[in-house]
Amino acid sequence: MEIGERDPVTGQVTTGHEWNGIKELYTPVPRIVFFFLATTILFAVCYWVLMPAWPLGKTYTKGLLGIDQKTSVDRLVKDATLERSAWTQKIDQMDFAAIQADPSMMKIVEETGHTLFGDNCAACHGTKATGGPGFPNLTAGIRLWGGDPKTILETLRVGINSTHPDTRTSQMLAFGRDGVIDSKQLADVVAYVRSLGGTTDGLDADPQSIAAGQDVFKQNCIACHGDDAKGKRDVGAPDLTDNNWIYGGDLQSVTTTVYGGRQGYMPHWEQRLSATQRKILALYVLSLRKVPQ
Amino acid sequence: MLAQLTSGERQLSIVVLILMAMVGLAMAAAGRGDPIGVHGFIVVVASVAMIFVMLSGLYAPEPSAERLDHYYDDPSKVGVILTMIWAMVGMFFGVWVASLLAWPDLTFDAAWASFGRLRPVHTSGVIFGFGGNALIATSFHVLQRTSRARLPDQFSPWFVLLGYNLFCVLAATGYFMGVTQSKEYAEPEWYADIWLVIVWVVYFAIYIRTLARRKEPHIYVANWYYMAFILVVAILHIVNNLAVPVSFGHAKSYSAFSGVQDAMTQWWYGHNAVAFFLTSGFLGMMYYYLPKRAGRPIYSYRLSIISFWGITFMYMWAGSHHLHYTALPEWVQTLGMTFSLVLLVPSWASAGNALATLNGAWHKVRDDATLRFMMAAAVFYGLTTFEGSFMAIRPVNALSHYTDWTVGHVHAGALGWVALITFGSIYCLVPALWKRERMYSAKLIEVHFWLAISGTVIYVFAMWNSGILQGLMWRTYNENGTLTYSFIESMVAMHPYYIARAFGGLLFLLGAITGSYNILMTIRGHSQAALQPSDDAPQRNLAPVAQPAE
Asked: What's the pLDDT tens digit per position in A2-11?
């Protein structure tokens, strides 16, 4: 090594080389660097001895602790399931009324149901379960297929118009587009349907049109929505006399619905959620209702 | 600039451009109705435009032999300008996607404007567009000065610079059209990848040829790092992008790897892209511009050696820490984690070597924002490498993985280290290239410094908070043993941090715009006392010194 000049600031000599004015000092590597290098390497070697570390052809060094991430996670899942089984078994065994009557069980339902709902249902029904265009408001007590816990549980299991073999199926025809009714009949029946909820906003309050619409309704709609327009649970046809609208109750929305028909979709949850989870969700959804049954 | 090329180099350029235009035409013809066809047109248009430029100067007089008495800096000049353009483009898209996360409606109702397509435009724009051009421009400058040798010819630097930018354009336009290999930071498809290999081999050849003709007995540290960057990025790029195209007329290809091997190859690539593109190359930059600006010798040559070989050897093993707690066998995770920990030592040795170099020049750090950029970069380099090793520990990773903590970590490195060292270096480089006494405005450098620092700090703190909050919310159980929070609740909790992040990014972008204006005004400014140090010239007369590199 050539002897360079001495740097006045640090007192170190340079290596004697210069590149475009840049020089380098020959300062020894600080001891702390070697110390930490030794420490980290020592840690690494210990870790290799204890844990799975080096490949050996078709196998690898298993480590003295015998830890393996697959068995670790299996054990953790098993332990957690066991811990939860104290109350999951109760959920499975007790009937709906018994759980609903037990405040401590309902506390579990609400805490667990809240997260289950957020992760699985909120994407469509909203974080507050109030629904949105195309998705029913679950807090309003609408009962498309029936509002008892068993029916809700079944809906969760098979879904609506889903790929499940037992799916609930519901289809509103495209009365306008398919030419079942003409455009005047369409306007009339829309006026009539909107008048049922009692919220006619003046635009379509023409009594003659409403009266004509009633006739159209009788000929085309009562098969599913019923004589009283209160809907039919077995075909999932909604009650038209309350003021809840899945697809919107304004003139444009109702016209679009009658013109083009509707076919709502809800996925089935049998494969994604366990029976216990679905039962919790059914109870949770019921507990959200703001209106009395 | 054309007048500098010899007539042979001009003819060679035209031949190469005609070949490129023909390949582009073939792509356009074979790829009708496919994005590769659009890319064919882009190649044709770019090549033909360049052919016209070359033809305009084809019959200019031969350059005088005097040019050989000066370093060849024209490609570096264009490279600096391209660096700043890509900085503004890439960072603009960064602010856009950050805002999109805070306000999801802030986009157009079109496929090209969806988050999934805009994000790679941001990442490739800043990493490859901004970072890559900065590396090419500075490496040509540093290589010549520290070797006392001119670049070996005047064609290949242009081929590398412009060819590389063509790759960047193909990458960005491809993302808008939905072209992607679905490999992070390696999204461009097979034809763009092949083109980059060609460009990269020429880049490496420039380095080897110049070093072979060097007039200094030893190879300076900066060049070790630049060489490691070029060589390893070539290896990473080729291996990770091995794929079989559906046909020569389709952009789509299928990777040679699948399943867990594909994931491991991808993150071996991904982490070493961080190591050799975003660390090694920029350390090369730091090792030249920082001591130059500080006017101080490197603190320790011996520390440089330990750092260089430590970083080069250790990084290669660390990629698997991106796949903790996945289907990757646990022994691979162990190796990734332990090597990541050892890696901290050479990383900190590099940062320490840079900071200790400033001993005796701290008054300059206080007064000179350019040097302060580089000092802050070294500090962020130290912080980020510590954080990186920390996050590579499996139980820590269990909390940090898939959260914004990772995003914050990356940006502490990308903004705090890569961008700050680049801006500091460019503020040294621009006056040197354009023969100006100094930058147009020292005040604007100061403004840029504080915009960049505050932007980085806001960004990183927002993501630390958001990331740790996310990680904790995802693992909090109630007393019944079920999760307390739904995923969507963690999304809602992140919202304020996402606004802060977008604001931090905006400050950083404003800084880059300020810097671009300052550079533009420096270039346009009248030659203030045309500064040209007498020693800023290659040595022609000495015989090459054939000594081993040390």
From this structure: 567 899 998 8
Q: What's the gap between Cα B309 and its chain centre?
A: 21
- Provide, rounded to the nearest whole percent, the portion of chain B with pLDDT above 70: 96
Taking the CA of residue A271 and the nearest CA in chain B, the distance in Å comes to 19
Contact between residue A54 and residue A60 where contact means Cβ atoms under 8 Å apart:
yes
- Mean pLDDT of the region B110-138: 97
Among B69, B428, B218, B194, residue whose Cα is nearest residue A2: B218
Task: Report the residue from B218, B341, B483 with minimal CB separation from A43.
Answer: B341
Domain extent listing, chain A: 14-60, 71-166+267-287, 183-260
pLDDT digits (tens, 9 = 90+) for A144-201: 888 889 999 999 999 999 999 999 999 999 999 999 999 999 999 999 998 887 665 6
For residue A115, give the nearest of B334, B360, B482 by CB distance: B482
Q: How far is A118 from chain B (nearest CA, A)?
A: 5
Is B344 in Cβ contact with A27 (below 8 Å)?
no
B110 CB contacts (<8 Å, ≥6 apart)?
A: none
Q: CA-based Rg of chain A, rounded to a whole angstrom?
A: 35
Determine contact: B325 vs chain A, CB below 8 A.
yes
Three-state SS sequence of A88-129: HHHHHHCCHHHHHHCHHHHHHHHHHHHHHHHHHCHHHHCCCC
CB spacing of A55 vs B303 below 8 angstroms: no
CATH number attached to the domain at A71-166+267-287: 1.10.760.10
Mutation target vs A (from B305, B342, B343, B347; most A CBs, 10 A cutoff): B342
- The yes-or-no verdict on residue A1 having pLDDT over 70 is no
Q: Binding-site residues of A for heme c, please?
A: 121, 124-125, 172, 221, 224-225, 266
Nearest Cα residue in chain B from A19? B146
With contacts defined as CB-CB under 8 Å, which chain A residues touch B145? 19-20
Tokens describing residue B58: 């084809």
Q: Judge whether B150 and B71 are in contact, CB under 8 Å.
A: yes
* pLDDT digit string, tens, across residues A93-152: 999 999 999 999 999 999 999 999 999 999 999 999 999 889 999 998 767 888 889 999
B135 versus B59: the higher-pLDDT residue is B135
Q: In chain A, what residues touch B487 (CB-CB under 8 Å)?
A: 118-119
Cβ-Cβ contacts under 8 Å between A and B: the total is 149
Q: Residue B176 above 60 pLDDT?
A: yes
Q: Is the CB of residue B362 less than 8 Å away from at least one CB of chain A?
A: no
Between the alpha carbon of residue B208 and those of residues A122, A187, B145, B203, B224, the distances in Å are 60, 81, 15, 9, 11
What is the ipTM score, two decimals? 0.90
Cβ <8 Å between B335 and A54: yes
User: A residues 94-153 near B, CB within 8 Å?
Assistant: 108, 111-112, 114-119, 122-123, 127
pLDDT recorded at residue A204: 52
pLDDT for the residue numbered B265: 97
Question: Are A71-166+267-287 and A183-260 in the same CATH fold?
Answer: yes
CATH topology (fold) of A183-260: Cytochrome Bc1 Complex; Chain D, domain 2 (1.10.760)
